Amino acid sequence: MSTTRIDPASLPGRPCSMAAALQLVGERWAMLAVREVVLGNHRFTEIARKTGAPTDRLAKRLRELVDAGIVERRPLGEGGGRDGYFLTAAGRDLVPVIQALMAWGDQWAVSSPTRQLRHRDHDLVSAVVCASCGEAVNDADVVFRVDGATSSESSWIEDGSRSL
């Protein structure tokens, strides 16, 4: 199954891959369902219980995620004839996004983190690193480009105070 592709120009506002991505996974129950599949919960009942989503909404979101190519339904392999939800390549590529959202939420959205991500024998501290040069990415070093040329727009923030 292929992943749904959206023409960014068809979206309202600034044409942008972020807007297209949010069209696919930006609804609350969608990302929480993906989180649960990442954590190894493949059954609908487990996903519903761990997200707290109303089952009708969750069923709709999971269908949309399947249609978008982010998760797939396949047999659980337990001999019971039941299907489960599993990440596709596109879904696996959301793992760092989920980790970043959890880290942001720990810092800015909750009074006290309820979960801690671990990397081997220590707490995970994520950083964005450029795969081409290996350097840590700072927002001041990133330039927004349109159609291969440096954009005359210096920012997503209207006052021009940021380069991204």
Characterization of the model:
There is one protein chain. This protein has about 160 residues and is an alpha+beta fold. It has 6 helices and 6 strands; from the N terminus they run ααααββααββββ. The chain has a two-stranded antiparallel sheet. The radius of gyration is 18 Å and the shape is globular. The model is unreliable at about 155-160 (pLDDT under 50).
The proportion of residues in beta strands is: 5-15%
> Which range best describes the helical content: under 10%, 10-25%, 25-40%, 40-55%, 55-70% or over 70%?
25-40%
Radius of gyration (CA) equals: 18 Å
**What is the N-to-C succession of helices and strands?**
HHHHEEHHEEEE
Domain HTH hxlR-type: 16-113
Pfam family, one: HxlR
Keywords: DNA-binding, Transcription, Transcription regulation
Protein name: Winged helix-turn-helix transcriptional regulator
